[in-house]
Amino acid sequence: MASKKNNPKEVTENDSNSRRDFIKKSGLFTALAFTPPSLVMASENKWDEKIAEYLETVPLSIEVNGKKHNLNIEPRTTLLDLLREQLQLTGTKKGCDHGQCGACTVHVNGTRILSCLTLASMQQNAQVTTIEGLSNGKKLHPMQEAFIKHDGFQCGYCTPGQIMSGIACIKEGHANSREEIREYMSGNICRCGAYHNIVDAITEVKEGGKEL
Amino acid sequence: MKNFQIIRALSSRTAVTNISKEKEAMFIAGGTNLVDLMKKNVVAPDKLIDINGLDLKKIEFLKGKVSIGALAKNSQVAEDATIKEKHPLLSLALAAGASQQIRHMATVGGNMLQKTRCSYYYNTDMPCNKRTPKSGCGAIGGSNRMHAVFGASDSCIAVHPSDMCIALAALDAQVLVEGPKGKRQIKFTDFHRLPGNTPEKDNNLEAKELITAIEIPDHNFTKNIHYLKVRDRTSYAFALVSVAAALDLKNNVIKDVRLAMGGVAHKPWRLTEAEEFLKGKTVSEEIFRQAGDLAMKGARTYGGNDFKITLGANTITEALIIAASK
Ligand SMILES: Cc1cc2nc3c(=O)[nH]c(=O)nc-3n(C[C@H](O)[C@H](O)[C@H](O)COP(=O)(O)OP(=O)(O)OC[C@H]3O[C@@H](n4cnc5c(N)ncnc54)[C@H](O)[C@@H]3O)c2cc1C
Ligand code: FES
Ligand code: FES
């Protein structure tokens, strides 16, 4: 993985002059204001907003499910919103948007995290895996198969998060007993209460001993 | 969430210099508390200084102490083999907090500075002296089941929510900080503060100071220790009350003891009187019960949290029993 420090496009403290300040100081809008027709046109086309929007974004290089993306995003965009709204990867779910349910769990550089509390702008050069990135062509990931076999869901809304978390739970070495699985899966809430079957699915994959 | 600028700091020194130039700038580490608060508009910085590029992630075992970098992740510390061996109380307390996903993101420094979970603080339609000074305290006379029983004031009865910090208070840790005026050390038990009539200040960190590390001096509390957290569900919930108990026993006699409590005050609450009472005594359930009752003596409750006096005494007793039996 490329070091975060080496990205030439990244905004660091050395070039921290605010883009917003730049707009203010550059007098761009003042200039427009002196030419009434262009001002009218500008406001009709919402140019000011568009320019400001462009200038208030930051560049982001990110790899999602093996595919590289070079994007411009607002600093406030969460990784969850980036995935769902900009990359159309809607498999990752938004449950609470406040870190309380685990539906948005994805892997970043191999570690499970909550994408709703992660700013995408802080994930320069990160490698992200979502539920869409698990299967090998038409062949489902062993954890996906185990969830189907053991009925590890009812409505399915929490399932992408449960599966991402379940895989990590085994890889971290925290799936050695049903109690341990329950404790280390406690960050994934299931309103349908499929917990028992979820633990069955994870236990089976763990005991299957396949490399995940 | 209001939009903001974000820049990545390249060194502690420049992070501090950079933040000093800005009025509404804040550091961001794991983001698990700050992003949440920004979404709710409880805090709205103009600029974030991302400190994740700083070299502050290491856990170093030095002569007589361990130094844990402020950016070490909560899961990294909890699961470090040497931390488990030498500071098992810290490992247990960390593992009792939040969920594994959050522990993978949360840092030691961010954990110390996490804001209270008082629902009035979180709800910008409600009065809260901590969020909006002089707006009043909704919890006094309101819903206060989670609130403080020690050291509260007429302005604020919120509690500090961290589990990790309860263990660090018990283990006499030190906080290393770097600010515009240079570096300094703060005793962990002096780091967080009581609300008084300035509840907007959670701790004694000065504006623009960066936490760089915490240090824990070596100690003998490696065997008879326990962190007991009582909450509304078995996992992934904040403490109603929690107790960090550490005993140094010789032939069942208590040579030394540390006791700290969470969920009861605006800061991690050391139970020094109960500690003094226990020193030199022989282990027994009766002695532990007396220590629990003694510790809860000065408690003051607010209606919704009356149960914390009994629950507190029982939790102290139970934590000591479990610690002694290990
Ligand atoms: C659903 C949920 C459940 C939780 N349950 C628990 C629980 O049971 N027990 C528990 O203890 N915690 C719990 N937490 C809280 C969690 O532990 C904290 O959110 C986390 O520790 C904060 O660390 P962070 O690195 O993400 O901080 P951030 O969110 O990045 O920062 C928090 C604050 O610290 C400041 N800051 C960060 N690092 C530094 C530094 N080095 N120097 C100066 N300032 C700094 C930031 O400016 C900010 O004000 C829970 C959180 C959630 C969302
Ligand atoms: S949507 Fe992220 S934890 Fe609920
Ligand atoms: S299957 Fe419905 S929430 Fe879990």
Question: How does this structure look, described?
Answer:
The complex is a heterodimer of chains A (212) and B (326). Chain A has 212 residues and is α+β, with helices and mostly antiparallel strands. Among the domains of chain A are: 4-54; 135-212, DNA polymerase, domain 1 (Orthogonal Bundle), CATH 1.10.150.120. Chain A is 39% helix and 12% strand. In chain A, strands 2-1-5-3-4 form a five-stranded mixed sheet, with helices on one face. Chain A is elongated. In chain B, the strands form three sheets. Chain B has a five-stranded antiparallel sheet with strand order 4-5-8-6-7. A four-stranded antiparallel sheet of chain B has the order 9-10-11-12, with helices on both faces. Chain B has a three-stranded parallel sheet with strand order 1-3-2, covered by helices on one side. Chain B is built from 13 helices and twelve strands. Chain B has helices spanning 12-20, 34-39, 74-79, 81-86, 88-95, 100-105, 108-112, 119-122, 164-170, 188-191, 272-278, 285-295, 307-324; strands at residues 5-8, 25-28, 47-50, 59-62, 65-69, 174-179, 182-187, 210-217, 224-230, 241-250, 253-262, 269-270. Chain B is α+β, with helices and mostly antiparallel strands and 326 residues long. Chain A binds chain B through residues 4-5, 10-14, 16, 18-20, 56, 58, 74-76, 78, 97-99, 102, 105, 111-114, 117-119, 121-122, 124, 165, 168-169, 172, 174, 182-184, 186-189, and chain B through 1-10, 14-15, 18, 28, 31-32, 35-36, 38-40, 47-50, 52-53, 98-102, 104-105, 234-236. The complex binds flavin-adenine dinucleotide and FE2/S2 (inorganic) cluster (2 copies). Flavin-adenine dinucleotide binds at residues 26-34, 36, 51, 70, 74, 97-98, 102, 105-107, 109-111, 113-114, 161-164, 210-211, 238 of chain B. One FE2/S2 (inorganic) cluster (FES) is lined by residues 153-159, 190-192, 194 of chain A.
